[in-house]
Amino acid sequence: VDGILKNLPISLQDGKINIYKSCRGATLEVDFGLRVNFDFRSRITVTIPGTYAGSVCGLCGNFDGELKDEMMLRDGTLTDDPVRFGQSWQVSSTPGCTHECRGRCPKCDVVAARRYESSEQCGKIHSLQGPFRDCLGTVDPTPYLDDCMYDSCLYKGHHTILCESLASYAAACQDTGAHIAPWRNQTFCRE
């Protein structure tokens, strides 16, 4: 805060903003009902009261319940390009940061990514007999599977990446109330 490292919990602006540890991450709460959870890895969840439905915009969408208009650019037009979508909401530039990779950039083609599609790896996400089988009709597994395979490929099958990808799909399923079977054990994604 103001350049000084603080320990959690912390309360700011006379209690209007509170930040504290929660489960395996941290939560920021603002007095008007905004809540941001971060797991200190890769998952951020933003929650706002229903009174804001349809009256917000940005990277988290407009909260109108319609998936078709979630990729709206800052100028109000729609896109299906996630890079263009993200760039349109960029607040400011940081010196030295660019949208493109420079130098030796990691690459992974579709064929290489398919190596991680087995039911012992990323394929757990869409397996009809897998731990997420009861969620498949509720949360589309395709983008989670694609991201898992691509990230696993970029990181050469590093186990942590696989576990984070599976955890991301599990969290999305749980957010909808869908049942998931146990998928962690002593030898797989133990956490």
UniProtKB/TrEMBL annotation:
Domain spans labelled VWFD: 1-98
UniProt-listed PROSITE patterns: VWFD
GO cellular component: extracellular matrix; extracellular space
UniProt entry keywords in alphabetical sequence: Disulfide bond, Glycoprotein
InterPro entries linked: Mucin_vWF_Thrombospondin_sf, VWF/SSPO/ZAN-like_Cys-rich_dom, VWF_type-D
PANTHER family xref list: EXTRACELLULAR MATRIX GLYCOPROTEIN RELATED, IGGFC-BINDING PROTEIN
Name of the molecule in the record: VWFD domain-containing protein
Organism: Chiloscyllium punctatum
